[in-house]
Amino acid sequence: MSSTTISRQTWFWLLLVGLAGSWVGLYFLNEYLWDWLFSLISFDSNNKLAVVLKFFGYETAKVLLLLVGMIFTIGLIRSRLSPEKVAKITNGEVPPMVYTTLVENMSKGCPFIVQVP
To answer: What is the reported pTM?
Structure first.
């Protein structure tokens, strides 16, 4: 029997994709989860207090999920840029073609970050 081992980098990427998928799932299921929770408690939808509590829970969870997503994305971007690379780019030491290639590589899979003309 041959034993296959998965490298640490593969585990890292699998974990990263799994966490990102979980985040997307939670974000899109947020409203349905709150609807389900309030149907379990059997709150009346005409009750103003129930509507306010449901709205507060839904919006709080959504804002926290967006905050976690932003911190995660910014962390990924910052991990790809060392201070030396940023200094070279801002001082004009990097030729424009290298800068364009750098930006294109960073924005793969994230087209909303930078659009290179």
So the answer is: 0.60
